[in-house]
From TrEMBL:
Family matches, as Pfam families: PilP (PF04351)
InterPro entries per record: PilP (IPR007446)
Gene3D superfamilies, sorted: 2.30.30.830
Lineage top rank: taxon: Bacteria
Protein's recorded name: Type 4 fimbrial biogenesis protein PilP
Length: 174
């Protein structure tokens, strides 16, 4: 009996607490505003501007983060029309990346010859003499214990082409 009395008292207090105050003026104002809107009127969709594709045309230019190459005009090499990249050749995977992103990390040798290991393009790759590396038609001409020699074919800026030697030296402790 005593527990029933306490329980009924608690229920009464909770119900009284829910109804206390009764200030629902903001809710009532919102409901009046919603009811005042005309029924069936749907707002039109907003007009979007069409997407204009952007084509990046400076990918073949020098990176702005590399220092410019100083050219002495008196000693400037002239390109030749004989040296030029082979446009009919099928491009290899490692030609899709700048040669600056690669670093030599080791060598392998077996009866077939010496192979170089280069890190870049998302992993470590095995290369051999005759493979191509970098975006400037860089052909690997020799592999030794400490470096990989590459000859790139680059434009001279006057319609000709130049052969530019580069080397990837062994990076130790990487």
């Amino acid at each position: 009996m005593k527990t029933r009395l306490i329980l009924s008292g608690l229920v009464t207090l909770m119900l009284a607490g829910c109804g206390a105050g009764g200030d629902y003026a903001d809710l009532q104002a919102y409901m009046d505003q919603v009811r005042a809107k005309p029924k069936g009127a749907i707002e039109p969709l907003p007009k979007f501007q069409p997407y204009e594709a952007f084509t990046y045309n400076a990918s073949s230019l020098r990176s702005p983060f590399q220092p410019p190459v100083k050219i002495d005009l008196a000693v400037k090499q002239k390109g030749s029309k004989v040296v030029k990249p082979d446009e009919t050749r099928v491009k290899q995977f490692l030609e899709g990346f700048n040669i600056e992103t690669f670093e030599m990390v080791g060598t392998l040798s077996n009866p077939q010859g010496m192979f170089g290991l280069v890190r870049g393009a998302g992993g470590v790759h095995r290369v051999r003499v005759g493979d191509y590396l970098g975006r400037n038609d860089g052909k690997i001409v020799s592999i030794s214990e400490g470096k990989i020699d590459v000859v790139e074919i680059v434009p001279d800026g006057e319609g000709g082409w130049l052969e530019r030697p580069r080397s990837l030296t062994l990076k130790e402790r990487s």
